[in-house]
Amino acid sequence: MGKSKAADRRMLAVQPDDHVTGVPKAAMTVIAYCDFECPYCGRAYHVVTRLMGRFGDRLQFVFRHFPLRDKHPFAEAAAEFAEAAAAQGRFWPMHNFLFAYQDSRDAEDVFNFAAKIGLDVDRMRQEITDRVYADRVQRDVEGGRRLGVDGTPTFFVNNERYTDEDRIEHLIQRAA
User: Fold this and answer.
1) Which CATH number applies to 3-175?
2) CA distance readout (Å), 115 to 36, 62, 103, 132
3) How many beta carbons lie within 10 A of that of residue 50, not counting itself?
4) pLDDT: is 133 or 14 the higher one?
5) Rounded CA Rg of the chain
């Protein structure tokens, strides 16, 4: 096996700093590279949520950032907000909020939501201002590019690449 195939396999393995929900070592692992402002990712979010509810004990879901900065001006900031929430143990509530209100939110809305879920908003404001999580987001982007990700959403289901959330739903339902 060539170096690139081995590197791809390592990048498709769940990493210690990945955002993961579901059962570890589940029969099916879905890795998603997404952008919080992408309308297609918003649609995929609903598909994945439905699948997790239906097949949660057989499915592990991994979220990785891939903000499309040139198309979505708030996407990178949203990714950094999600990381700031993760640093306080609340990635998934922030992830859900960012997708649920993707068309009608700004930074102040995110800070208000952060307060509602008990985050230290002053800490978060400082971390966002200082861009503490920019490198973390960029690592996901670079890893995605090495895997050939060039748009969102891009999924890897048990290491196979897909870009159509409807096909993902069909594939998982058939496998389950």
Assistant:
1) 3.40.30.10
2) 20, 26, 20, 19
3) 11
4) 133
5) 16
pTM to 2 decimal places: 0.90
Residue 14 DSSP symbol = P
d(CA 29, CA 48): 12
Q: What is the pLDDT of residues 3-23, one digit of tens each?
A: 456 556 677 889 999 999 998
> 114: which strand partners?
none
> How far are the Cα atoms of 3, 10, 77, 164, 168 from residue 105, in angstroms, in the given order?
43, 36, 12, 26, 28
Secondary structure of 54-77 as H, E, C letters:
HHHHHEEEEEEECCCCCCCCCHHH
Domain ranges of the chain: 3-175
Among candidate residues 39, 52, 65, the one with its CA nearest the CA of residue 141: 65
Q: For tokens 């503490």, what's the residue?
A: 132
Q: Residues 56-76: pLDDT tens digits?
A: 788 999 999 999 999 999 999
Q: Is the pLDDT of residue 80 over 50?
A: yes
Token readout for 123 is 């800490």
By C-alpha distance, which of 4, 28, 32, 36 is closest to 18? 32
144 — pLDDT class (breaks 50, 70, 90)? very high
Output the pLDDT for position 52.
87
